[in-house]
Amino acid sequence: MILALRKRTQAASLSALFILEMIPSVAMRRFVTLALSFVGLFDAVYLWWVYASPSHPMACLGTGCDVVRASAYAHVWGVPTPVYGVAMYATLAILAFAEVMAGRILAAVIRTLILLVAAAGLVVSAILTSIEAFKLHAFCDWCLLSAIVVTLILIVSALGMRRATPPPEGIAALQMVRAQFVLFIIAVIVGLVVFWHLSHSGEFTAAQRVNAATLEARLVRPDSPATGNLASPVTVVEFGDFDCPFCKLTQTSVQQLLKQYGSQIKFVFRQFPMDLLNPNMHPEAEKAAEASECAAAQGKFWQADPLFYQNQPNLAVPALEKYAAQLGLNTSEFDQCLSSGQMAARVRGDFEDGRAVGVNGTPTFFVNGREMLAPTYAQLSQAVDAALARSGFTTAQAGNAKARSTQAASAENSGVKSTASGNGAAAPAASIPSLNAGNPFSQVAQSNPLACSAQDASLAQPTLIHTAAAQKIYESRPKPVFVDIRSADEYAAGHIAGAISIPIEEIQQQWSSLSRNRTLVFYQANQGGSGEDVCAFSRAAARVLLLHGYDPSRVKVYEDGLDGWKKSGLPVAK
Predict the structure, then answer these.
(1) How far apart are CA 502 and CA 541, in angstroms?
(2) What distance in Å separates the CA atoms of residue 238 and residue 272, rounded to the nearest whole number?
(3) For the chain, is the Cβ count within 10 Å smaller at the N or the C terminus?
(4) What ranges do the domains of the chain cover?
(5) pLDDT tens digit string along 167-224?
């Protein structure tokens, strides 16, 4: 990787230096400084745009750009790193403009400032490139371009200092100002065209390549479980898996969303059991999905939904039958429905619809066609607000439609799935409004390494250990770090003595606080489900560290978890 970086950088630098040597005049060198400043400014503005929201697509020759964007170094003091690049290149451009119009003494000062700013920029670029090479093991082409540009500006400014001549005066100065203004106009026009092209050709998900007719037909079916305001022009669809740990985490966002927007949006659930993609992922998911559909047949889908998530990882058939009794279902009908596989075709139909619209992992949401993978509540609510604004759906309209939604919900509680549209009839899939309208990035998926995806099983996996090996590591020197990834409350109730707490939902923000030189052992209460479940919390948390270049030999997952630790009589703290 280092060799590839070296070759790429050397080739670009040598070509640029050859061009610079062909430039005959000092005035032209000033012109080149301004042009390079515009190139760097465009680079930094584009990076700022893609760093500002993970839902923005990013054009890149490889996968390193997204790795760098997802790292802790993408923000410095809470500010996106490219913002500092924007400030630097804007300063260089302003100084390059000013030098032509300045007197001899002031021009000399400006040349010195350009040299110092470029030198500082080169130092920062060198540091950031070193971080990419030795910490992240990934390179962002846009970052490398910025490093090359600031290096060239430094060379040009140094040549200008060595061959300094009096600044142009009179007509010569006016002609130079005009030339710079023309360059500015050209830079703006070219920049807008290139930006438009990049924003339409970034790394989009498969959903963007799905035609509108497929989305309209397969994103929502007339008999899909729905709640909220069934007459709303804004439809939120979740493709979920009851055995997916991160779907369970996201349910807090779903409940909050329904509480805040329940009278304004239609919320639809689609089944996407990940074991249909890979048997090693969520082996109980398909049967749990069938059980929820059996509950829906008795009008209790929306009661079964939170109950199943709450009882992860125990979703075996006997447990599902017990939950049916808790829901007050007709247990004989439920048992017959589940054992006969009556709902298997429905579940697989949802799964195939999900694949058809580009779903590759869970939880995946669509807000009026905008795909989002494992979004936070803030991201979900922002997408809903934007969809409501585009639809023009008012609070008054929401109130008028509430009665129709209540009527439809009553029908569901009587044993019929919510399928009503605004007029009480079955809502055809084509009623979903404007899936491809509005924002050109409306179908860009957000990257989230904690989500459960089809590629998880093929990624580098952490080493799994059991109690004997965990105890040996625990007693070894240098002292290892045991990381409890449960909630803070669960940690406070009892944890492995000496373990630190990093809840799973915070691992992406806190991973860099963990030492690279000590053995790291992740654990939860237990691994949950099958020992082959690559999407369980502990494995996913450990994979975040592997993604950021941690030594795989130092990253472990204690599969027996706190339960196994307690059973062996090992030290526990509160």
Answers:
(1) 10
(2) 9
(3) C
(4) 2-199, 212-453, 459-573
(5) 666 676 677 778 888 888 998 999 899 888 887 665 444 444 567 788 888 999 999 9
Bridge-partner residues for 228, per DSSP? Answer: 266
* Structure confidence by residue, pLDDT tens digits, 513-568: 899 999 999 998 865 444 446 567 888 888 888 878 888 899 999 988 998 999 99
3-state secondary structure 541-565: HHHHHHHCCCCHHHEEEECCHHHHH
Which residue has better confidence, 317 or 16?
Answer: 317
Q: Evaluate if residue 434 carries a pLDDT over 50.
A: no
Average of pLDDT values for 477-485?
93
Q: Which fold has domain 212-453?
A: Glutaredoxin (3.40.30)
What are the tens digits of pLDDT across the range 229-284? 999 999 999 999 998 888 888 888 999 999 999 899 999 999 999 888 777 678 88
β-partners of residue 239 are 270, 364
CB 462 within 8 A of CB 396: no
Per DSSP, 226 falls in state: E
For tokens 């390079």, the residue is: 36
Q: How far apart are CA 446 and CA 371, in angstroms?
A: 8
- Residues in the chain, overall count: 574
Q: What is the mean pLDDT of residues 159-163?
A: 69
- DSSP code per residue over 309-363: HHTTT--SHHHHHHHHHHTT--HHHHHHHHHTTTTHHHHHHHHHHHHHTT--EES
Q: Which of 28-42, 115-129, 209-223, 244-258 has the highest mean pLDDT?
A: 115-129
Helix (H) or strand (E) holding 178: helix 170-199
**DSSP per-residue letters across 86-152:** HHHHHHHHHHHHHHHHS-HHHHHHHHHHHHHHHHHHHHHHHHHHHHIIIII----HHHHHHHHHHHH
C-alpha neighbours within 13 Å on the C-beta side of residue 390:
20
Q: At the top level of CATH, which class does the domain 2-199 belong to?
A: mainly alpha
Query: What is the secondary structure of 22-40 as a DSSP string?
Result: T---HHHHHHHHHHHHHHH
Query: 459-573: which CATH number, 3.40.250.10, 3.10.20.440, 3.40.50.1980, 3.30.420.270?
Result: 3.40.250.10
Task: Report which of 437, 388, 382 is spatially closest to residue 234, judged by C-alpha positions.
Answer: 388
DSSP line for 267-298: EEEEE--GGGT-TTS-TTHHHHHHHHHHHHHT
pLDDT at residue 394, rounded to an integer: 58
For 522, the 3-state DSSP assignment is strand
The whole-number pLDDT of residue 101 equals 73
285-297 vs 344-356: helix crossing angle, rounded to 10: 110
Q: At what angle do helices 285-297 and 331-339 cross, to 10 degrees?
A: 140
Q: In 219-264, which ranges are continuous DSSP H helix?
A: 245-261
| C-alpha–C-alpha distance, residues 170 and 60, integer Å | 46
Name which of 535, 511, 534, 527 is nearest 247 in CA terms: 535
How far apart (Å, rounded) are the C-alpha atoms in residues 72 and 214? Answer: 38
What does the block give as tokens for 553? 């030999």
Rounded CA separation 331/326 (Å): 10
